[in-house]
TrEMBL record:
<dbReference type="InterPro" id="IPR039744">
    <property type="entry name" value="RIbosomal_uS14_euk_arc"/>
</dbReference>
<dbReference type="GO" id="GO:0002181">
    <property type="term" value="P:cytoplasmic translation"/>
</dbReference>
<keyword id="KW-0862">Zinc</keyword>
<dbReference type="Pfam" id="PF00253">
    <property type="entry name" value="Ribosomal_S14"/>
</dbReference>
<dbReference type="InterPro" id="IPR001209">
    <property type="entry name" value="Ribosomal_uS14"/>
</dbReference>
<keyword id="KW-0699">rRNA-binding</keyword>
<comment type="similarity">
    <text>Belongs to the universal ribosomal protein uS14 family.</text>
</comment>
<keyword id="KW-0689">Ribosomal protein</keyword>
<dbReference type="GO" id="GO:0008270">
    <property type="term" value="F:zinc ion binding"/>
</dbReference>
<dbReference type="GO" id="GO:0022627">
    <property type="term" value="C:cytosolic small ribosomal subunit"/>
</dbReference>
<dbReference type="GO" id="GO:0019843">
    <property type="term" value="F:rRNA binding"/>
</dbReference>
<keyword id="KW-0694">RNA-binding</keyword>
<dbReference type="InterPro" id="IPR043140">
    <property type="entry name" value="Ribosomal_uS14_sf"/>
</dbReference>
<keyword id="KW-0687">Ribonucleoprotein</keyword>
<dbReference type="InterPro" id="IPR018271">
    <property type="entry name" value="Ribosomal_uS14_CS"/>
</dbReference>
<keyword id="KW-0479">Metal-binding</keyword>
<protein>
    <submittedName>
        <fullName>40s ribosomal s29</fullName>
    </submittedName>
</protein>
Length: 83
């Protein structure tokens, strides 16, 4: 059995070896969510074309939504008082 016949001899039907980026065929850094199957570099290039928008909150907006690190029970209590 020569080296050529042993190399890539097992089937790659599942696991990390079976998946690759649909654009550049790269296997590392793959984003599989929503069946994208893009590596992270290609995702950054194609995100606007696909329809992804980067959303950033200011600290005051995130506190109002209860998302910030200082948004605790006081924020929830003030919401309950308003209801």
């Amino acid at each position: 059995m020569s080296h050529e016949s042993v190399w890539n001899s097992r089937p790659r039907n599942y696991g990390k070896g079976s998946r690759s980026c649909r654009v550049c065929k790269h296997k590392a850094g793959l984003i599989r969510k929503y069946d994208l199957n893009l590596c992270r570099q290609c995702f950054r290039e194609k995100a606007k074309d696909i329809g992804f928008n980067k959303v950033s909150f200011t600290w005051s907006e995130s506190a109002a939504w209860g998302l910030g690190p200082h948004a605790g029970s006081a924020t929830l209590a003030s919401r309950n008082e308003q209801d």
